[in-house]
Amino acid sequence: MSKKVRVRFAPSPTGGLHLGGVRTVLYNYLFARQNGGDFVLRIEDTDQSRFVPGAEEYIFTCLDWCGLHPDEDPHKGGPYGPYRQSERKSLYRQYAEQLVKSGHAYYAFDRPEELDSMRERFKTPNNPSPQYDHNVRMEMRNSCSLTLEEAETLLEDGVPHVIRIRMPENETVTFTDMIRGEVSFHTGLVDDKVLLKADGMPTYHLAVVVDDYLMKITHAFRGEEWLPSAPVHLLLWKYLGWGSSMPQWAHLPLILKPDGNGKLSKRDGDRLGFPVFAMNWTDPRSQELTKGFREIGFLPEAFVNLLAMLGWNDGTDQEIFTLEELISRFSMDRVHKGGAKFDFEKAKWFNHEWIKRSEIARLKPDVKKVLENKGVPVNNEAVLEKVIGLVKERCTLLTDFYEQSKFFFEAPAELDVDSVKPKWTNEKKVLFESFVAALKSPNGHASFEKWAAPELETGFKKLATDEGIKPGEVMMPLRVMLVGGKYGPGVFEIMETIGKEETVRRIEFAIHQFIK
Ligand code: GLU
Question: Of residues 266, 364, 368, 386, which has the active-site annotation?
Answer without folding.
Answer: 266
